[in-house]
Design goal:
mainly alpha; two-stranded antiparallel sheet; about 50% helix; about 5% strand
Length: about 120
């Protein structure tokens, strides 16, 4: 903690961001023009390009994270595959709904195989 405090104090003491600038008293207009000639000012086209790069990179990052997140909540589409699995009795024979309901009364608890062969 002492190191952090010393580091902050050192940086604050050496910072010249809020120090007043020295103004040129003689021919300040000529000094300002000469200073502007050597510097590179970013024009509007370059600013637009930089903004497009920023927005594009943010869109790729957010899209790369958002698309799988959103697709998690979208249910899988119907179709594909062979449909459901057939119902089977305890011997492994297929059960058909009309025949089964005709031969068994309502509330009959006869066994049928589940998905992994377990009786249900």
């Amino acid at each position: 903690m002492k190191f952090f405090a010393a580091l902050v104090a050192t940086l604050a003491a050496t910072a010249s961001a809020f120090a007043p600038t020295k103004s040129a008293s003689f021919g300040s207009r000529a000094v300002a023009v000469k200073a502007a000639e050597g510097e590179l000012y970013i024009d509007q086209d370059r600013r637009n390009l930089m903004n497009l790069i920023l927005v594009g990179s943010a869109a790729v990052t957010v899209g790369g994270l958002a698309v799988p997140y959103i697709l998690f909540f979208v249910p899988p589409s119907a179709g594909g595959g062979a449909g459901g699995s057939p119902a089977k009795n305890a011997l492994g024979d297929d059960l058909f709904s009309k025949d089964y309901l005709a031969s068994h009364a309502a509330g009959d608890h006869s066994l049928a195989q589940g998905l992994k062969g377990d009786a249900t």
